[in-house]
Specification:
0% strand, 78% helix, mainly alpha, rod-shaped, 4 helices, 158 residues
Length: 158
């Protein structure tokens, strides 16, 4: 009777061992899959971080270029205003001098009178801005809307 019980017990123990072995194998296979997934995720993360770093460099260059171009534009606009003021003064001087009307041809006088009547600044205003850039509407890329806050660039990345 005891022998029979041992045989029955050993049969169930054997089945338990087989079930445990199958569970261990399933767990091992799952761990292998997770390890491969983790490796792929790390590789993808490395690629994305490299791409992000490259884009940050491009952003930095673009910000610098915008800054340089804005400075050039402000200098050019200041020079234009300076030249307009000089031209306006010359025009006013020519129109006020009695000898100015005699020295100039009728056509030149009429052109100067027309310019003086419309004010020189208003006459040159349409030419002032480049036609390639439409600045009449609020653009998302308007230089007044661009943030030059560099605090985002200084964030420590882990």
């Amino acid at each position: 009777e005891q022998g029979l019980q041992l045989l029955e017990l050993s049969g169930s123990v054997e089945e338990d061992y087989i079930r445990i072995a199958r569970c261990f194998e399933a767990t091992r296979q799952r761990c292998c899959r997770l390890e491969q997934d983790g490796r792929r995720a790390r590789e993808q993360l490395a690629r994305v971080e490299a791409e992000r770093a490259a884009l940050e460099v491009k952003l930095k260059h673009a910000r610098n270029q915008v800054e340089v171009e804005m400075k050039k534009r402000h200098r050019a606009e200041a020079e234009l205003e300076k030249q307009e003021r000089k031209l306006q003064l010359v025009l006013e001087l020519l129109m006020q001098e009695p000898w100015g009307n005699e020295a100039l041809s009728r056509e030149q006088c009429s052109v100067l009178s027309a310019l003086a009547g419309r004010r020189l600044g208003a006459a040159l205003a349409p030419v002032r801005r480049s036609s390639a850039v439409d600045e009449s509407c609020q653009s998302l890329l308007s230089h007044s809307d661009i943030s030059y806050d560099r605090t985002e660039d200084d964030v420590v990345r882990s």
